[in-house]
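To: structure desk
From: M.T.
Subject: fold request, one chain
Message: Could you run this one when you get a chance? Sequence is below, nothing fancy, just the single chain.
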Amino acid sequence: MTNKELLQQAISKLTKEELQAIYPPIERANFVVRKSWLGRNQVITFVNKKNQRVTYNHDEVLKVMLPKLSIMPCWIKREYWSQSTDMPKDVRNLATIEQLPSEADMIEAFGEEFMESTNKGELVEYEVE
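Reply: Done. C-alpha cells follow.
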C-alpha cells in the first residue's frame, strides 16, 4: 500500500470533529475540488464575480460532481478542477450564498472619505449611530 493510500485510509477513520480540527475552514480565491481532498470534510469559502460569499463542503460537492468529472480529461490527468467565476450551477444548492455589499452600498452607508481611507489602508475611527 502506498503512503497516499495509507493516509487516505487513516483520514477515513476520523470523526467529523477530528477532521474539522485537522482541516479547518479555508478561504480561497475561487471554486475548487480535488480528488486528494476527498474525505477531509473541508469547508471552503470564496467570493464569486457577483460579489457573493459562497461556502461549501468539499466532500458533498465533489460526490455530486464526480460522475461528470471522472470522464473529463482535465480530471483524469490532474484530479483537480476549478472555476474562477462562480460555483457550477448543478451544485449551488449545496452551498450557502451570501450577497456582500457593493462599493456603492458602502459609500452610501459610510461615505466617500471612509472608502478612500480603507483603499489606502488607513485606520479611521467612525461612530455608528
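Reply (cont.): The CA atoms of residues 59 and 96 lie 15 Å apart. Let me know if you need anything else for the meeting.
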